[in-house]
Amino acid sequence: MGGYVVSNAVVALLGVGAAFTVRAVRRSRFWSDAARELARRRPLALLAIAVYVGVGLADSVSWIDAAGGVQGVEAHTPRSLIDRAFPAGFQERSYSAPFAEVEFYGGAPLEHPGAHWFGTDILGRDVLHLTLKGARIALLIGGLTSLIVIPLALLFGMSAGYLGGRVDDAVFFVISTLASIPNLLLLIALILALGRGPVQVCVAMGVTSWVGFARIVRGETFKLRELDYVQAARALGASEARIVLRHILPNVMHLVVITFVLLFSGTVLSEAILSFLGIGIDGSWGQMIDQARDELARDPIIAWNLAAASVALFLLILAVNRVGDAVRDILDPRTLVEDL
Amino acid sequence: MIGYALRRLLYGFLVVQGVLGLLFVLFFLYAEPMDMARRAVGEKAPPAVLKLWIQEHGYDRPWTDQLRDHYVRMLSFDFGRSDADEVPIARRLREGVGPSLSFTVPTFALGLVLGVALSLFVAYFRETYIDRTGVVIAVLAMSVSILLYIIGSQYLIGKILNWFPISGFDPDPRVLPRFVAMPILIGVVAGIGGDLRFYRTVFVEETSRDYVRTARAKGCGDGRVMAFHVLRNALIPILTRVVTAIPFLFTGSLLIESFFGIPGLGAVTVEAIQGNDFSTLRVMVFIGALAFILFQIVTDFTYTLVDPRVRLE
Q1: Could B281 and A192 be called an inter-chain contact, meaning their C-beta atoms sit closer than 8 Å?
Q2: How far apart are the first and last CA of chain B?
Q3: N or C end: fewer C-beta atoms under 10 angstroms in chain B?
Q4: Cα–Cα dist B180/B147, whole Å
Q5: pLDDT at position B165
Q6: For residues A11 and A140, is the Cβ–Cβ distance under 8 A?
Q7: How close A275 comes to chain B (CA, Å)?
Q8: Residue A289 to residue B6: CA distance in whole angstroms
Q9: Which residue of B has its CA nearest to A188?
């Protein structure tokens, strides 16, 4: 059993989740209208995100070949759909420029002349391949962090806002404490304490970023609790749990969607900073940019590594930010004025 | 008002306790003393030396003692010495504040003035192509990683155009501007996208209020309405955003300082991270939090100056 089995299972789960979400959106007038409006306003950005998600998912589905197919190391390691799009042993000895026939320094002939569209890095790995693999890491960072943040913030925010009193005091104290520590410093302290690794980094980012959202949920729940329809539900004898789940939760769902999108770009950009500090996630675009730092000081310079990773990162963040703006405009133009 | 101030200070003190508790859990209960010793003394140091280091730094005492020591030290601002190189941490802080302030204060001031001015301009032309272009540019600027801003401008401005030194620092006021110019520029550009978007939203929302219509009806020009009426009424959200940025003036920007070789507190922090120097890192986090809490209380009082309707009860 390797990590790749888990990854395949996650893809399957995501598929099921997506199917359920689509069904739920179809059923609700509010959500299907919002989805249609979003598609009308931001077709390009949505397309770009779809491409990134496609690449990321394709890189998450992998398996080991049956014996006898491919030769060498690749016969024993799981390879994803993205890996399989490149020929086996697609590697040089060192740097080569995009579409080059020879090595960048020295001019020795390449094993695959003219085949590396984005060139190769210092170890001779294909940059296009590395860049595509970065999509999975970026989606993992943004997705996993949001998956940690949203339940946490909903739980604490709604219980504080709905129950009030002591619970509210306690939650508010936790929120104030976490919010008073500068975000990046807390993030770093958490990662150093938890250890390095993709899950640890995402947990740390989750812990540092649930606070802002919890505060918004708390305020919103506080308002909703006093509304007539909640009073009516209570008068009809609905249990507290039912009121929270059926009458309050659906009315903060739009905030969840907005937060998810806004949080995503923030976390992916923070990971780039962590990569510079040496505590990022292996294979991320941030790490590629960090490794390319000294390549601009070489003579002649090597720019394709930096360019590939930063353009990939920039386009994803731009698309997500554009969609985020539109989502915010469509779903809730007022509550979330402040940045999360 | 005095009662309010006392209550706020008391709550601030409670939050400081919370921060200290969290730091203790992170840095004392989670961190393995053996690992810390190995990193400080060297990977191949004999066990006896490691033991001695742990003893000298007090990491072998019962955790209750360490907890008491942690609270007493932090609250009395007696930070002790760095685990990595035995330099008193207080001296690091004293030496680092100047360089940090020398580039964060201009960045902050310039960013604030430019951000507010540009947003007023864009909000003045709301719902026109100027507004839309401004917002798109802001989103573009926000989507670029700060790493790329730094690496790109070091290459372009420092290496190709050769306007400013690529990195370095000299406190001599005659040459200081040359060294801090590029960090300031990057800090302003990297922050302006988010600022523009935020302030614009605030201003546009403010322009739909009744008093704006009244002012116009009385014959007040659009420019005057924006610069006096709208700006003044939007000061509260602006102030809230600005004050949250102030603690970072002291702690500096981790990335910019370490890329440009500015020996400020941000660079000290980066060094502490890379050297696993928990004793310094703990102090930096504490100072950052303390500054934030204090400035938050100060903001509450500036609200009353900006808006006389605000009463602190």
Answers
A1: yes
A2: 6
A3: C
A4: 17
A5: 81
A6: no
A7: 10
A8: 49
A9: B273
DSSP percent split of chain B into helix, strand, coil, nearest 5: 75, 0, 25
| Contact criterion met (CB below 8 Å) for A83 and A65 | no
E strands, A36-133, in order? 62-63, 79-80
Give whole-number Cα distances, A92 to A80, A109, B14, in Å. 21, 10, 59
User: Coil, strand or helix: which one is A91?
Assistant: strand
Name the average pLDDT for chain A.
84
A317 touches chain B (CB under 8 A): yes
Residue ranges per structural domain of chain A: 3-85, 91-122, 144-300
Top-confidence residue, A149 or A340: A149
User: How far is C-alpha B58 from the geometric centre of its chain's CA atoms?
Assistant: 32
CATH fold group of domain A144-300: MetI-like fold (1.10.3720)
Which of B143, B282, B289 is closest, CB to CB, to A180? B289
Q: How far is CA B91 from the centre of its chain?
A: 21
Average pLDDT over chain B reads 84
Task: Tell me whether the omega of the peptide bond preceding residue A300 falls within 30 degrees of 0, making it cis.
Answer: yes
Instruction: Report which of B297, B268, B293 is spatially closest to residue B97, judged by C-alpha positions.
Output: B268
Q: Show Cβ contacts of residue B237 under 8 Å, excluding neighbours closer than 6 positions.
A: A337, A338, B198, B202
Q: Would you list the DSSP string of B1-15?
A: -HHHHHHHHHHHHHH
DSSP string, A147-164: HHHHHHHHHHHHHHHHH-
